[in-house]
Design goal:
heterodimer, A: mainly beta, 6-stranded mixed β-sheet, 4-stranded antiparallel β-sheet, B: globular
Chain lengths: 113, 116
């Protein structure tokens, strides 16, 4: 069965420092991978996705994610964190188009001023 | 992307009552999804709503508890029936707008229900 793991419940980063939010997946074949962000009292917003091609995917708000097939990872990154990046981040995986999308449990990102 | 409007945005409901959540999309979509996000938890898919057919429910969710309507390609409703405090959650409507392979699911702002 497909699954996605976010090993950190919370990540704290000082403003201006680079940030990484980790995600690993367990899916056979070539999955589709996604990152979503949930700001306080809001719904989920799509950040970026990987389907095929370049392993480095760029998304909204300066975020990017690197697909690593050998390590089955899709870590979210940003070169310089902003306080406004503080939110709950969800990684998601889909085995094939029209399959269900499975969400990780989420990682709470705190950017410290 | 898609503009997805949900109503109500928040509500406090009495135990034993039912509440219907509406989801309106700004353009026609084939697939609409309803998710639940319990406090401090991740998202769980309740059902997939396709126009012109009955909704497809995930394991652990049944039509009697969560009846869904999909009368056209831009609208859907989810009813939470006979509510208990365990139903206190965010209920999220979402649509599939994925070009070029790979679904991209866009979400509404959610309906935040508290059952007392």
């Amino acid at each position: 069965a497909q699954s996605v793991a976010q090993p950190e419940d919370q990540v704290n980063v000082a403003e201006g420092n680079p940030l990484t939010v980790k995600c690993t997946y367990s899916v056979s074949g070539n999955p589709y991978l996604f990152w979503y962000v949930q700001y306080p009292n809001r719904g989920l917003q799509f950040l970026l996705k990987y389907i095929t091609g370049d392993n480095l995917v760029k998304g909204s708000y300066g975020f990017e994610a690197e697909f690593n097939k050998s390590q089955t990872s899709f870590h979210l990154k940003k070169p310089s964190a902003l306080v406004s990046d503080s939110a709950l981040y969800f990684c998601a995986v889909e085995k094939n188009r029209d399959d269900k999308i499975i969400f990780g449990k989420g990682t709470r990102l705190h950017i410290l001023p | 992307s898609a503009v997805i409007s949900q109503k109500p945005s928040r509500d406090i409901c009495q135990r034993g009552t039912s509440l219907t959540i509406q989801c309106q999309v700004d353009s026609q979509v084939t697939m609409m999804f309803w998710y639940r996000q319990q406090p401090g938890q991740s998202l769980t898919l309740i059902a997939t709503a396709n126009q012109g057919s009955e909704a497809t429910y995930e394991s652990g969710f049944v039509i009697d508890k969560f009846p869904i309507s999909r009368p056209n390609l831009t609208f859907s409703t989810l009813t939470v029936s006979n509510m208990s405090p365990e139903d206190s959650s965010i209920y999220l409507c979402s649509v599939d707008r994925g070009p070029n392979g790979g679904n991209t699911i866009y979400f509404g702002e959610g309906s935040w229900l508290t059952v007392v």
